[in-house]
């Protein structure tokens, strides 16, 4: 079935604002511990931005997974290596010393590409199982994984287990029905209320709930924020519910029609994701920390964070980067004959 241009623009618009939140979230990481306002903003972003990104990735992975497009699936591994390498050299240039390079363990940005590879493989393996069973078992595994401190960044195992339900939920979702749901005016109004209420609750109780941010990252055991609690899995379930509700609300409030430059930038999500962290490292390591630019903003630190995020977005979305990223994500694979 052909997809209308309006619907394509809708998803590009959603991805534009999502990738902006990714960039802003990484900038906010720097100041979250010194600025309560930044900490609140970061907590708000982390409640749904990566679960929603993975849900949308699953939604648009139906063809690659169902047709077993190994060229597309294995390109995620190449992208993973590419991001690790450019981040490594950015850290080297910014810090002035050689950082550690661990091929099989990842706590930073490249995990997303590795997880897309893993999720695609897992989804192919379980293709003959009823979706309800797969989703239920994956949630149970994620709840159980939080008790094991040994499940962490090696092979991005913690994030693979914790975030797979979001990817798979996107994969089994009927895109047309979802789009029709998101068009409902009632859903849009309700979504706006939900997002506003969530911001109010987080701002009001931030001091009491800020440590729960660690569970939203998908890479930490329960013991990071609660000790010896046999019912800690409830926190995982609550986080799943919060991420799901806020993610749906976020999709609903994004307009279907916006200026074309927003849609074009939304279509460049992969290159922004791949490059922004390296540019962030270079900027703060070589420029900001040397000239203390952020000190001029003081109480208006969030404005500075927004400005830096916008500039990084613009640079990373430039057409200049399109060719190398496309080269990586469109690897030709020869089909075996006979």
Topology of this protein?
Elements: H1 5-31, H2 36-46, H3 49-59, H4 62-66, H5 70-95, H6 111-125, H7 131-145, H8 157-172, H9 175-183, H10 185-209, H11 213-216, H12 233-253, H13 260-266, H14 269-291, H15 301-316, H16 322-329
Helix pairs in contact: 1-2, 1-3, 1-13, 1-14, 1-15, 2-10, 3-8, 5-6, 5-14, 6-8, 7-8, 7-12, 10-12, 14-15
Characteristics:
338 residues, disordered N terminus, mainly alpha
Coarse shape: globular
Residue runs with pLDDT of under 50 for 5 or more positions: 1-7
Beta-strand percent range = under 5%
SSE string, helices as H and strands as E: HHHHHHHHHHHHHHHH
Overall radius of gyration: 20 Å
Count the domains: 1
Oligomer: single chain
**What's the β-strand tally?**
0
- Helix residue percentage: over 70%
Could you explain the architecture of this structure?
The chain is mostly helical and 338 residues long. It has one domain (5-329). Helices cover 71% and strands 0% of the residues. The longest helix has 27 residues, at 5-31. The radius of gyration is 20 Å and the shape is globular.
Task: Kindly summarize this structure in a few lines.
This protein has one domain. It contains 16 helices and no strands. The chain has helices at residues 5-31, 36-46, 49-59, 62-66, 70-95, 111-125, 131-145, 157-172, 175-183, 185-209, 213-216, 233-253, 260-266, 269-291, 301-316, 322-329.
């Amino acid at each position: 079935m052909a997809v209308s241009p309006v619907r394509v623009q809708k998803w590009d618009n959603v991805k534009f604002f999502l990738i902006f939140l990714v960039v802003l979230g990484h900038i906010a990481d720097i100041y979250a511990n010194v600025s309560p306002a930044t900490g609140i903003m970061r907590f708000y972003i982390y409640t749904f931005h990566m679960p929603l990104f993975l849900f949308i990735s699953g939604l648009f992975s139906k063809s690659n997974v169902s047709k077993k497009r190994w060229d597309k699936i294995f390109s995620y591994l190449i992208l993973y290596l590419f991001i690790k390498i450019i981040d490594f050299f950015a850290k080297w240039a910014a810090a002035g010393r050689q950082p550690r390079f661990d091929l099989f363990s990842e706590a930073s940005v490249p995990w997303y590409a590795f997880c897309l590879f893993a999720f695609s493989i897992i989804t192919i393996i379980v293709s003959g199982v009823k979706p309800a069973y797969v989703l239920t078992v994956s949630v149970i595994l994620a709840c159980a994984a939080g008790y094991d401190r040994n499940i962490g960044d090696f092979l991005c195992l913690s994030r693979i287990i914790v975030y797979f339900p979001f990817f798979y939920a996107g994969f089994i979702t009927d895109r047309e029905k979802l789009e029709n749901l998101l068009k409902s005016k009632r859903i849009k109004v309700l979504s706006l209320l939900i997002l506003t209420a969530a911001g109010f609750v987080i701002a009001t109780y931030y001091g009491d709930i800020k440590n729960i941010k660690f569970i939203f990252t998908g890479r930490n055991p329960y013991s990071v924020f609660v000790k010896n609690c046999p019912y800690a899995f409830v926190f995982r379930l609550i986080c799943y519910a919060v991420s799901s509700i806020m993610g749906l609300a976020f999709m609903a409030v994004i307009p279907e029609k916006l200026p074309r430059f927003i849609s074009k930038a939304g279509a460049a999500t992969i290159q922004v994701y791949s490059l922004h962290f390296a540019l962030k490292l270079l900027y703060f390591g070589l420029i900001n920390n040397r000239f203390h630019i952020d000190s001029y903003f003081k109480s208006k630190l969030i404005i500075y964070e927004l400005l830096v995020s916008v500039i990084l977005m613009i640079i990373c979305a430039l057409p200049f980067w399109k060719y190398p990223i496309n080269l990586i994500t469109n690897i030709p694979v020869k089909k075996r004959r006979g």
